[in-house]
Design a protein that fits this description.
Keywords: Heme, Hydrogen peroxide, Iron, Metal-binding, Oxidoreductase, Peroxidase, Signal. This protein has 504 residues and is of the alpha+beta class. It contains 13 helices and ten strands. The radius of gyration is 27 Å and the shape is globular. The structure holds protoporphyrin IX containing FE.
């Protein structure tokens, strides 16, 4: 071997040792990543160019199904720092002592449109936070608005179908979703909030968040307190009017993702304070609404906000697919000290998220780095596609429990709480206190004159696109029942007179 060949071989080897050599999927060095292996210079290309074939095959499979809702989103990482000792109410690890820090992953999102859709849409915004605690991952999978359109999960697929683009024209159509909502009076409250300027946040940093549902906090004595979470932005709430949103869309419709990223990059770390509202189980029935109805706000003058900590986002994802697209949040990712409430919408969600993750990310999605609990997972749920942890046990042949050979045990202190039931009938009924309009009216009345005008204008704009007079009249009637002035203004804007409503 000549001196030159030797030194060339040496420099390739040292590049290799530095770990910078391009490899095939199976780890072998790649000789040429620019030219396929061909018969002569002009081809055809040989099937035996395995590197080429595997490269194309990997590309062909790059996309996984997008989230069926909340497909467009942006993520960031940081920490939650407790400012209160809430151990009298919950054993939940992040809330035990002031100063305690828990790492978090956060994903903000829009709801209805696809993965690459504009961030200027009037749409609720998702506000999902994963706490990596020492007792497991805890997710608060909330939205920016504190209430929801419906109170029972059985309506969710129909509602989403009506809001998504038409199966015929592939275009979102107010005629379809108002057709649905005209038959769902409990949606009036959420629609009143959504069509106010709160419906288009100026950026993810500028919105509050809410768990929407009540959850059960459980203390070390098994005592239950119902809680609802609220995140309050320290950046101040900022929204776009419809005109500002249109102008933003003309300039840059990915502004929310971009601004979250650039603020963090510049060291302007966004922060939110976390509050809880608490209701004891015997006080649940003392309101003119049912607090476990997701269409209802918990009024702060009756159920005060208690601050429990602050969240700071200080790290951007390095790889969007691995750290954001692969994030899997679920309202069922709970830890000791938090249990689901009886809220009928929440109960359906407890199934839906774990189920969709298995479909979207595969059965072992919890082994993806960003979803992995901080502490080792110890159980015998195993195998299936991409299983990576079947050999970690001291007796690999014992994949059952109980066994005389392994010390894998339950922790009785963390059994689910007991709930006593009396005089219960299993049924399929609406809740008794539907009270569908009062809070919508209160929200409208509390708006400034200018904000009321924006709400009326925004609603008029979309209702004017509804071709059915019947649907328009039904929607006006719901808003009229919430607030007379709101209903009258919409009726007038849409060209209806009193006589048109005689039958309603
Ligand atoms: C995402 C179902 C109501 C907040 C999702 C996903 C599904 C789903 C299937 C996609 C999850 C994924 O692919 O990872 C449902 C059902 C509901 C419901 C069945 C009612 C029965 C709600 C409510 C809220 C909410 C009331 C707010 C409190 C979110 C958020 C995400 C999401 C924030 C995105 C999570 C992320 O960033 O990965 N929902 N949802 N959903 N949902 Fe719901």
């Amino acid at each position: 071997m000549s001196k030159i060949t030797l030194s060339l071989a040496f420099s390739f080897l040292s590049l290799w040792a530095l770990g910078q050599g391009l490899t095939t999927n199976t780890g072998a060095p790649v000789g040429d990543n620019q030219n396929s292996k061909t018969v002569g210079e002009n081809g055809p290309v040989l099937l035996e160019d395995i590197h080429l074939i595997e490269k194309l095959a990997a590309f062909d499979r790059e996309r996984i199904p997008e989230r069926v809702v909340h497909a467009r989103g942006a993520g960031a990482f940081g920490y939650f720092e407790a400012t209160a000792d809430m151990s009298a109410y919950t054993q939940a690890a992040p809330f035990q002592q002031p100063g305690k820090k828990t790492e978090v992953a956060v994903r903000f999102s829009t709801v209805i449109h696809g993965h690459g859709s504009p961030e200027t849409a009037r749409d609720p915004r998702g506000f999902a936070v994963k706490f990596y605690t020492e007792l497991g991952n805890y997710d608060i999978v909330g939205n920016n608005l504190p209430v929801f359109f419906i109170r029972d999960a059985i309506k969710f697929p129909d509602m989403v179908h009506s809001l998504k683009p038409s199966p015929v024209t592939n275009k979102q159509d107010p005629g379809r979703f108002f057709d649905f909502f005209s038959n769902v009076p409990e949606a009036t409250h959420m629609l009143t909030r959504l069509y106010s300027d709160l419906g288009i946040p100026a950026g993810y940093q500028y919105m509050d968040g809410s768990s929407v549902h009540g959850f059960k906090w459980v203390n070390s004595q098994g005592k239950v307190t119902y809680v609802k979470y609220t995140w309050k932005t320290r950046q101040g709430v900022r929204n776009f009017t419809a005109e500002e949103a249109a102008a933003q869309q003309g300039k840059d419709w990915q502004h929310a993702t971009a601004a979250l990223r650039s603020d963090i990059e510049a060291g302007q770390y966004p922060q939110w304070d976390l509050y809880v509202q608490m209701i004891s189980p015997d006080a649940l029935d003392s309101f003119d609404f049912w607090p476990l109805d997701a269409t209802k706000h918990w009024p702060e003058d009756q159920i005060p906000l208690v601050k429990v900590g602050t969240m700071t986002l200080n790290r951007n994802p390095v790889n969007y697919f691995q750290e954001v697209e692969s994030l899997a949040f679920s309202p069922g990712s709970l830890i000791p000290g938090v249990e689901p409430s009886e809220d009928k919408l929440l109960q359906g969600r407890l199934f839906s998220y774990f189920d969709t993750h298995r479909h979207r990310l595969g059965p072992n999605y919890l082994q993806i780095e960003v979803n992995k609990p901080k502490e080792k997972v110890v159980n015998y749920n195993s195998d299936s596609y991409a299983s990576a942890r079947n050999d970690e046990f001291p007796h690999p042949d014992v994949n059952y429990q109980p066994s005389n050979y392994t010390p894998v045990q339950e922790t009785p202190a963390y059994k689910y709480t007991e709930t006593k039931l009396k005089d219960v009938t299993i049924t399929q009924k609406k809740i008794a206190k539907t009270n569908d309009y009062k809070q919508a009216g209160e929200f409208f009345k509390a708006l400034s004159k200018e904000d009321q005008e924006h709400l009326i204008r925004n609603l008029t704009g979309d209702l004017a696109m509804v071709t059915s007079k019947e649907v328009q009249k039904k929607m006006i009637t719901h808003f009229y029942r919430a607030d007379r002035k709101l209903g009258m203004a919409l009726a007038q804007n849409l060209g209806f007179g009193m006589k048109d409503f005689m039958s309603h």
